[in-house]
Design brief:
Helices cover 25% and strands 17% of the residues. It has 89 residues and is an alpha+beta fold.
């Protein structure tokens, strides 16, 4: 573990970032008192297939949408009750 003051940290930030990326912990001190810790960010742990089975759909999932729903998705609202654009039909 390395301790540096704020001035040194500002002057050598790239070098300190490289050291942190390699696993070193750097403490940044102000007036001799530790105020921050520079540590590497670990890679997120992703496991392929970990969400398998959490989403279940029925056989109608891939069926075409009804015309009125397609109009809504395409911005072609056919209702006069559209609160965002009351003139649009």
């Amino acid at each position: 573990m390395t301790t540096v003051n704020v001035h040194e940290a500002k002057t050598n930030l790239s070098r300190l970032l490289d050291a942190a990326a390699k696993g070193e912990e750097i403490i940044i001190a102000k007036a001799g008192k530790p105020v921050a810790r520079l540590i590497p960010i670990g890679k997120p742990q992703r496991t392929p297939g970990s969400m398998q089975g959490t989403f279940v759909s029925d056989e109608t999932f891939f069926d075409p949408l009804p015309e009125n729903e397609l109009d809504l998705w395409n911005g072609e609202i056919t209702s006069r009750s559209d609160p965002l654009n009351p003139k649009k039909r």
